[in-house]
Amino acid sequence: MKGIWTKQTLINLLLGQFLSLLITATGFLSSELARKGINAPTSQSFLNYVLLALFYGVLMIYRQEGIKAKWYFYVLLGIVDVEANFLVVKAYQYTSLTSVMLLDCWAIPCVLLFTWFFLKTKYRPRKLVGVAICISGLVLVIFSDVHAADRSSGSNPIKGDIIVIAGATLYAVSNVSEEFFVKSADMVELMAFLGLFGAIASGCQIGILERNELRSIHWSAGAALPFVGFSLAMFLFYSFVPVLLKRSGATMLNLALLTSDMWAVVIRIFVYHQKVDWIYFVAFAAVAVGLLVYSGRDKVDKNVADEGIVRSKRFDEETGLDPARKDAIESSRTEENRQSFDAETMPGIQFQGR
């Protein structure tokens, strides 16, 4: 057990829980705005994109480094991310906070498919079992929304569920794209351009769809504070997501965010004083167990890694290879492998050296 639960695994779990708390905060604030009758999902995310563009854009200018990926890929990523946020926030008008948080797990099978197909990620049976357990919560929550008396918290739960699933699919596309760019390009560049093009796409959509809604809002502390709080929570969330993506990938990110459902239930019970159907608790248990199963490091992986270290040391001893020379060779091989990966995986993207 000690060999499976490494320090890196625990750090990834804690980072995932921090992101889970942030996403729960955004869900709570979105639900509050929906309860006040404010229907401006794109406007809620606009300030977040502006903050990303300003903060990381200044860092890019300060570093004075060339762009490592084609800018138009960031344009597409910005549009996909904006629409994903739009759909998920829109769903709060039709279904409950808990349902939205749970149905986000639809992004997990999508991430698995996209990472396997585009990033050539390999998943061992243990990982797939953990994902399958998490996805079981998806079936349970849909069953609950259809048959249980949970409709008081939403005007049209089924419509809301469909909107969430569509948004979760776009989230999967966005997460996998971010994983590729953060590992192959640069985190600061990714966040700067995501903020820039996300702000432009959001601004255009606000001008088309939400002008009248913004005019009709009676701005007060009760309306402005949720907007500002949502943007700050999203800014922190977007800033730390690339860290977890680089450490453990998009699948781990989406699995970690499923624990936000537990925090959502706490909010629903103690803040809204609503009753929660018993099926939700079964779904929560499935999510928690699946996350633990997925997060644990496979013993076979550890054994392979240990054997590789032993063989490397034995080879060095037999050949008398100098450590400094060995480091230079390994560095050269790493660079060659990275260039080969860039050329073979995404031939349409050209990366420049720092």
TrEMBL record:
The keyword GTP-binding does not apply. Its main location: membrane. SUPFAM superfamilies: Multidrug resistance efflux transporter EmrE (SSF103481). InterPro entries: EmrE-like, SLC35_F1/F2/F6, SLC35F_Transporter. Residues 317-354 are annotated as: Disordered. It is a multi-pass membrane protein. This is Solute carrier family 35 member F1-like. The lineage of its organism: Eukaryota, Viridiplantae, Streptophyta, Embryophyta, Tracheophyta.
